[in-house]
């Protein structure tokens, strides 16, 4: 369910980033991004580092509380242990979701709310990782954060059980948190899990159907459930911990959802036209896999000769590494308007996200952190 | 994770049992049981029917709240829908766990506590069914409650996702329950899920190891986690909803755990020496499957010639349907003391359960319902 491919460099868990690291990141961000703005890159990197530093000790303590084998599987998944149980540098992803929780809490309730929201940020990250463990089993994905996925090394049963346990840990953490918002946050996070499951279910079901049978609305709904829901929930939970009014909680949820959809649209564009040297995948990997990504479905449902050509290409099995056919398919998606549509949609979603954010957090300075995170998530181009 | 094989007859969901049904059940219980006592059979059947009637409407409403395909999978799993989506008679198991929640609440807090504990009873039943869905995937079990398991008809991904959603639903229900005990109950139920996962993990890992490498203590610990933990949690959650003191909550947890272990010991005895016409499985099915059940591990670790003979038999692959070898293996388990040990252990566990129950609920009349349920669970012989 929606992982951001950009990964931080491994570093010892809990270590503060050196100035050098931040500098290197800043230059990478600027370089791969191509359009540095006042709000992206550096500020987001600092926010993400701060979130990781706030969240890691509690996150790790929660994972360490698991009994025996479940702990080993989870520590491996989070990148804190090698397969043989020796300590690893830690490579537990970008912490986008915990950062959204903490930054939303800070935007609406200041530093005290940010500090109080750490257990909620940990819970959201545990849920995210539960879905990664299970999605990898279902999708037969073999690599996660540059390492073999848990199911490939421990087997399906262990990966499923570790995921189950992480979901339980997340909701236990909130149930044990005395903060007055913890109950509402738990209810919201549990409802979000149902939505994430529905999104993953729709995705796996859709991939089995013929390309012509899939509508654009349902792919958008699937992407919102699979990717937008947890980003929205992270922001909403942060707002709850700040004691925000219902309409502000709802606005922050919508902000996260729209930004999540914008991310997914851009991610899908990169999956077709991304530079292989930056994505680490062969050109047009999503096309070779016949993925019904958003630009593809937009193109297929657009009518006209390019849509018909694309449909015919998607019906035929690919020859392995047939670059010419990949190029023809990408061109058909583009000619049928799939690329333009996705880019316009992404811009539109980001505009809506900004509107929602401005509604809940009118002061641009206070909204700056959330804006930076949204820009970071959607502007990355690798 | 520990399902009781005795299943109620299908009946329309929510329908009250007819006198005839109760009569038939009473006679079945007496007949198969062989040692009717004042506390088993009929009273337990009435308690289970009442629990089902109290819990089914909320349980069904929770499942119906799931979106689209997840709802269909869950309704099928619970026996409320056929595969084609038409209504089914309902065959959602015995409701032992919800009955324990409600009966514990009543024993410690009277009828008002029982009524208030319905959401908690629903949550426990949702967790139980989440584990069934996932265990069936991992164990490749093809039949559940006389029907094909969910993964065999919907596929692994759908069964995993429906299970994930049921866990979330359970914890959402408690998070949304305004009862003062709901937070403590959620924390306890989530901790129990971790224990259930650890038990299932230990079980699947154990089955891959050589028979001589498995110790009796670890099989007992596994059985307690896999079967005892949720029965204990059900009782503890009921006590929490009755506003019971910590030590009474702990005593009821221990009561449920010990009764659960007694059940597992007896279930394992039946898995070897049960009457095939009653179990519905071939004689010695657990031996043919080389299951490291409690009597087998007790026998293997007992030392002496019968243990050595059993170890040799367990190393060799069975010829299909080789009745003579099944009989020899069963005899080796018996000679090595596995049967006697399991029966003595079961009696011992039941005695401990009774002690714990008497500690928390000294009045025999108030304790009667829980006693009847424990007897029901452990005395069944089919």
Automatic annotation (TrEMBL), chains A, B:
Domain of life of the source: Bacteria
Family, as annotated: Belongs to the FPP/GGPP synthase family.
Annotated stretches, region: Disordered: 1-42
Gene3D superfamilies, per the entry: Farnesyl Diphosphate Synthase
Keywords: Magnesium, Metal-binding, Transferase
Basic and acidic residues: compositionally biased ranges: 21-34
An annotated Gene Ontology molecular function: prenyltransferase activity
InterPro entries: Isoprenoid_synthase_dom_sf, Polyprenyl_synt, Polyprenyl_synt_CS
Any one biological process term the GO annotation gives: isoprenoid biosynthetic process
Organism, scientific name: Streptomyces curacoi
Signal peptide: none
Protein name: Polyprenyl synthetase
């Amino acid at each position: 369910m929606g992982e951001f491919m950009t990964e931080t460099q491994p570093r010892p868990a809990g270590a503060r980033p050196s100035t050098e690291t931040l500098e290197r990141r800043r230059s990478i961000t600027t370089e791969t991004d191509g359009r540095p703005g006042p709000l992206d890159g550096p500020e987001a990197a600092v926010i993400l580092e701060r979130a990781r530093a706030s969240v890691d000790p509690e996150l790790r303590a929660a994972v360490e509380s698991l009994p025996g084998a479940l702990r080993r599987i989870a520590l491996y998944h989070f990148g804190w242990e090698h397969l043989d149980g020796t300590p690893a540098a830690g490579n537990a992803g970008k912490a986008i979701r915990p950062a959204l929780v903490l930054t939303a809490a800070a935007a609406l309730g200041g530093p005290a709310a940010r500090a109080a929201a750490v257990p909620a940020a940990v819970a959201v990250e545990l849920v995210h990782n539960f879905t990664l463990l299970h999605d990898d089993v279902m999708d037969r994905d073999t690599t996660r954060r540059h390492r073999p996925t848990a199911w490939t090394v421990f087997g399906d049963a262990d990966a499923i059980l570790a995921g189950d346990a992480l979901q339980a840990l997340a909701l236990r953490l909130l149930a044990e948190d005395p903060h007055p918002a913890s109950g509402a946050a738990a209810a919201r996070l549990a409802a979000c899990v149902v939505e994430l499951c529905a999104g993953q279910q729709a995705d796996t079901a859709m991939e089995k159907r013929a390309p012509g049978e899939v509508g654009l609305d349902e792919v958008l709904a699937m992407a919102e459930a699979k990717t937008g829901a947890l980003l929205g929930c992270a922001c909403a939970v942060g707002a709850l911990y700040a004691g925000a009014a219902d309409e502000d909680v709802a606005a922050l949820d919508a902000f996260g959802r729209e930004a999540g959809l914008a991310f997914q649209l851009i991610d899908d564009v990169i999956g077709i036209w991304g530079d292989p040297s930056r994505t680490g995948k062969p050109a047009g990997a999503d096309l070779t896999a016949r993925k019904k990504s958003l630009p593809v479905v937009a193109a297929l449902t657009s009518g006209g000769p390019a849509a018909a050509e694309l449909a015919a290409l998607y019906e035929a099995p690919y020859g392995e590494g047939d670059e010419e056919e990949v190029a023809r398919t990408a061109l058909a998606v583009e000619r049928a308007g799939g690329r333009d549509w996705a880019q316009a949609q992404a811009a539109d979603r980001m505009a809506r996200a900004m509107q929602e954010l401005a509604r809940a957090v009118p002061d641009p300075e206070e909204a700056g952190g959330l804006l930076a995170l949204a820009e970071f998530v959607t502007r990355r181009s690798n």
